[in-house]
Design a protein that fits this description.
- The structure is a homodimer.
- Chain A is α/β, with parallel strands linked by helices.
- Chain A has 2 domains: 48 residues, RecR Domain 1 (Helicase, Ruva Protein, domain 3), CATH 1.10.8.420; 136 residues, Dna Topoisomerase Vi A Subunit, Chain: A, domain 2 (3-Layer(aba) Sandwich), CATH 3.40.1360.
- In chain A, helix 1 crosses helix 2.
- Chain A starts with 5 loop residues before the first helix and ends in an 8-residue tail after the last helix.
- The mean pLDDT of chain A is 88.
Chain lengths: 202, 202
């Protein structure tokens, strides 16, 4: 690309460093920002500046937070005895959006994946085990993606705490609500028949 | 979306104000930036800050520029007598990328579009006419999109300067190089037959 402005070039290069934004998209974004009387660029610039300087992780659940302890962990209306274990902050937000969970979280920050060289010590498992061993947890809900890596992670955590007095469950797996059976993959459909639940239990 | 951090929320909101970036993409970008040890966010923040404070438009051709007169207009190796008229800065960059043009540009900043309420006075036509009337231009190449609005704009400019001593041309329109005839649209194919050029002229 031939830029007539170094400033524009640097803006495009920096935006293009973001995932799934190519050079052409970055250029479109930068030109949009130029045409926008600078308001948006100033706003984004300030927000990202704050993001780099002020964001921190909750010491208890490892979710992003503005303070040492996040809003959810600090809330008196949540049940700290029920901990939902998730892979990422995005999962916390997805579960919060459902409004169906009143406990607290533990963000692993990844899952065990030997292929990618991610072992148990690379993710926040030790702090989870410490939380459980301190006796602060009654129930652990594993809300981990139903993949081989996810199952490995659940199995590993399970092994580590099998002697502790804590109930462990995983989120239900099966066909999606509103989904059509014929389009469900074989594994999901097969498993959802094998793990069928009594009709009254619904 | 339920955010556990105000700082993250503001970053997501600001990124989502960009075109074609929804809230979910913005969240993905923000979390990517958090995971990236802040280097990228600082770089983007600085680049956009500069973009809002330092960018300016070339007084002559209205392209983005770091100075009063852009690199292209200021260059001694370019022919200032040949002016290529384009709709946007993106077109300048696209033509520069071809390496086939050695003149200078005039960026209209839009095209005449009565439906969108854009008239001749809303785009940089007056300064173009002044450039031509000052006698500084020998040839005008209209590199405007071949749409109704584009043709209207070309026609309008043509009318305004028909008494001036300047050669006007439009970029060639026809089937794309490497394109297959059967996939070209009827209008393009029909026009490219009507405006066929002698074989030796290629």
């Amino acid at each position: 690309m031939n830029f007539t402005s170094k400033v524009l070039e640097e803006a495009v290069e920096s935006l293009a460093s973001l995932p799934s934004i190519g050079k052409k998209s970055a250029l479109r974004l930068a030109l949009h920002l130029i045409n926008d009387n600078n308001e948006k660029s100033i706003r984004i610039s300030k927000a990202l500046d704050k993001l780099s300087s002020e964001i921190t992780y909750c010491k208890q659940c490892h979710s992003v937070s503005d303070d040492e302890i996040c809003k959810i962990c600090a809330s008196h209306s949540r049940n700290p005895k029920v901990v939902c274990v998730v892979e990422s902050i995005r999962d916390v937000m997805a579960i919060e959006d459902t409004g169906q969970f009143n406990g607290v979280y533990h963000v692993l920050g990844g899952i065990i994946s030997p292929i990618e060289g991610i072992g148990p010590e690379d993710i926040n498992i030790e702090t989870l085990i410490n939380r459980i061993k301190s006796g602060a947890v009654n129930e652990l809900i594993m809300a981990i993606s139903p993949t081989i890596e996810g199952d490995t992670t659940i199995y590993y955590i399970n092994k580590k705490i099998e002697k502790e007095d804590v109930v462990i469950s995983t989120i239900a797996r099966g066909v999606s609500f509103g989904g059509e059976l014929e389009y469900a993959d074989e594994l999901t459909l097969g498993r959802s028949i094998a793990t069928r639940i009594p009709f009254n239990n619904r």
